[in-house]
């Protein structure tokens, strides 16, 4: 497929698992362990999609969305939120701040994969 995904997640075990699964589906995967590192990687590599947690150190997912929304270099990169926060208020806030999609943990990979394909194909 040759599409690049930037995965921003602060839990190494989840990062490793998702990276392997995405690579099995022929995505190139970049990783970052916090939002600040994620923004820097997005500017450096211009991925086709960003998958980000909400609650993480340095820059959280909401702040990340604000940065992407206001940055000319990043604003056209879709950001998919992948989080344990299931409340409708959280979902609405993320979507209002510019999230292209919202998937809650725990999740089935096939559902995440389907959402990814909708956003980048």
From TrEMBL:
Keywords: Phosphoprotein. The modification 4-aspartylphosphate is found at residue 53. SMART domains: REC (SM00448). The keyword Nucleus does not apply. Pfam families: Response_reg. CDD domains: REC (cd00156). Residues 4-120 form the Response regulatory domain. PANTHER family: RESPONSE REGULATORY DOMAIN-CONTAINING PROTEIN, STRESS RESPONSE REGULATOR PROTEIN 1. This is Response regulator.
């Amino acid at each position: 497929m040759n599409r690049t995904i930037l995965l921003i997640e602060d839990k190494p075990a989840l990062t490793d698992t998702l990276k392997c699964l995405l690579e099995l589906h022929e995505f190139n995967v970049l990783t970052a362990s916090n939002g600040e590192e994620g923004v820097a990687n997005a500017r450096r590599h211009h991925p086709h999609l960003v998958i980000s947690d909400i609650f993480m150190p340095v820059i959280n997912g909401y702040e990340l969305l604000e940065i992407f929304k206001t940055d000319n270099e990043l604003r056209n990169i879709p950001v998919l939120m992948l989080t344990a926060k299931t409340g409708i208020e959280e979902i609405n806030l993320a979507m209002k701040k510019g999230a292209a999609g919202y998937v809650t943990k725990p999740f089935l990979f096939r559902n995440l994969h389907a959402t990814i394909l909708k956003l980048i194909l």
